[in-house]
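// run 5 | inverse folding | seed 20
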């Protein structure tokens, strides 16, 4: 289920964003009861990170409706987009080595 949510989030954000930044969905985590989903993103350039995160979280309701169409029979969890700090650290380490 997490893969379907991640793929749907990636498709939704690529369709709905303004194209001024690159938003990549790196992971999705859903709690055991299916009531809460965290969607991890990275944003390029870094300077657009705050606006992209604000955009994603502002459009959670629309994403939930999109998710209903994509994943039939799924109960929509409480959605939250967050920055994937682990991925940012991995990218930084790659730059340094």
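// decoded
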């Amino acid at each position: 289920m997490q893969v379907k949510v991640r793929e749907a989030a990636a498709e939704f954000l690529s369709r709905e964003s303004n194209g001024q930044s690159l938003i990549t969905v790196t992971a999705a985590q859903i709690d055991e009861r299916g009531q809460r989903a965290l969607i991890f993103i990275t944003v390029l350039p870094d300077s657009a990170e705050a606006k992209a995160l604000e955009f994603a979280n502002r459009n959670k309701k629309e994403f939930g409706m999109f998710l209903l169409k994509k994943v039939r029979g799924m109960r929509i969890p409480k959605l939250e987009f967050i920055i994937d700090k682990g991925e940012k650290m991995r990218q930084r380490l790659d730059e340094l080595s």
